[in-house]
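thread: overnight batch results

M.L. [08:02]
morning all. the overnight job finished for the chain we discussed friday. pasting input first so we're all looking at the same thing
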Amino acid sequence: MNSLIDQIQKSNTWKEIHAQPDIWRAWSNDFSAEAYKTWIAQLGIKEVWFCGAGTSAYIGDIITAGLPNAAGIRFRSIPSTDLVARAGYYLKKPPNDLLIVNFGRSGNSSETIGTLSAIEVLAPSLPTLNITCNSDSALAKSTLGRSILLPHACHDAGFAMTSSFSTMLLTALSIFDTDADAKYNIRRLAEHAEAVLPVLASQILRSKIPSRAVFVGSGPMAFAARESALKVMELTAGKIPALWDSTLGFRHGPKSFISSGTAIYVLRSAEYPATKYEADLVEELRIQFPEATTMTIGKDETFATKSIGYSVWDSVLSVLPAQLASVVWSDRLGLRVDDPFVGKSTLTRVVSGVQLHPLEPVQ
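M.L. [08:03]
and the structure it wrote out:
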């Protein structure tokens, strides 16, 4: 067992998961959101579109589901995969008070490049804010709008996005959650993550590999559940099918996914009445599916991740169990944790090779 643990701990992905508390703490000292808040206010922004692909898109989903219309701004999550495919639909007549926020770990994916190109052709006067982890990327070097470059440590060397996801999310929350004391929140989250990671890792290392995995949550936790499910599918190369849904939506058909050996994780919220609906679902699932294992993630739960009292911020803690489990399960399945698709080329760390079709400028 110790040799297996040593092998897991040598992976970049395992190290990057555990580096998150230090990264967040240092970033809270180095990054100031005030200049960006002032810039946005001066522009008179009333609508923000969060764009990204895959995990980067889920950042926008979490923010949109978790924040009210802060400072009177409307938030929308529009994945770059949608925007590029239907660029004219989104950009031929965009709102005059719009800001586009682009997320990208590598900043070089096909859809990132396609989004920048679509904005340049169809709406070149739109202000943009680019948040990336790669200083050499197209996103970082874009002349459209402003760019925020995260610490190099966030540019995950592993296949899966871990510290890049959480730090980009915390950066955006620092700017757009205008009622929060962002520096204080990030430092508390770092303290919590530092305290719980060893305990969570010990629990995961003692757990069995499930036949399937399910992650559900309410509001922003639903999209943290989506990110959790993606981590499992990515790092196990699809050998462990994983599903996500909202707490109340799960009963409407997706519950049929559960079979013997399924691991079900309910990501608990910090707000009422979501907490009550989540508790009801946990009780129901444990009665209806004794052949599965229903667990909870959150403050004082099966996997205790603690809480600062706001689900949209707590989401970076709630994905920790899935990040850790994905590494452990990947290793036990005999896969290369940092590149589960090595030799296959079916999935790559940075999506490339998508043919981008030309657009005509708006007349």
